[in-house]
Design a protein that fits this description.
With about 240 residues, this protein is of the alpha/beta class. The chain has helices at about 40-50, 70-75, 95-100, 105-110, 120-125, 125-130, 140-155, 170-185, 200, 220-225, 230-235; strands at about 5-10, 15-25, 30-35, 55-60, 65, 80, 160-165, 190-195, 205-210, 215-220. It has one domain (about 5-235): P-loop containing nucleotide triphosphate hydrolases (Rossmann fold, 3-Layer(aba) Sandwich). The protein contains 11 helices and 10 strands. The chain has a 6-stranded mixed beta sheet, sandwiched between helices. A 4-stranded antiparallel beta sheet has the order 2-1-4-5, with helices on one face. α3 (about 95-100) packs parallel to α7. The longest helix has 16 residues, at about 170-185.
Amino acid sequence: MFLELLDVHSYYDKSHILQGVDLRLQQGEMICLLGRNGVGKTTTLKSVMGMVKPAQGRILLEGRDIVGLLPYQIARLGVGIVPEDRRIFPSLSVHENLLIGIKAGGAQKAAAAGFWDPDRAYKMFPRLKDLRSHMGNELSGGEQQMLSVVRTLMGNPQLLLVDEPTEGLAPILVKAVIEMLVDIQRSGVTIMLVEQNMKAVIGVASRFYIMSKGNIVFEGDRESLEKAEEVRRKYLEV
């Protein structure tokens, strides 16, 4: 198993956010963690990334327990996170934003087949090439989301954690962002996706988890999720 969360409990101060989360992810897979606002989805990603240290449980990356490692140490193990707020540098160009995402030693790695650098990004996502001289604050919401995802790829992660990539986007841009993530997965990157918009991801993720109040209340594939009407109504519908 590529990534496993085993009985993970995480807190913010005295607030018990994750209450025994179990989750698994195979290499090359795209899974989606669904749920309403405030149930612990983002905290799950931050716990994997080391931004929140679990008080209990294990997080195994290729069999190695990474609980207690700092975010930069986890990043060096091949994990990248795309935050919900995108964090684009507004006064830098698209190209400069991409260059910031390159890790030390990245130029040598990028020379090898399969590694990400700006040239590969522009080839795979021509829209970014068209925008390469534009400042971050000149981009639309969808363009900023694309840049945020691809900037994270410049660190050549094996595992990409993506937080609410479709939030606030028009339907046509939602479709473009999801198609981009599918292309990235096909390139060999494993993806753990957090979303509220089930309709956007139902056709692309291989498995789904639903979270409520810090617990996993459902796990299954697309067919299982589509059949679980009561679960969807109780935990996903407004």
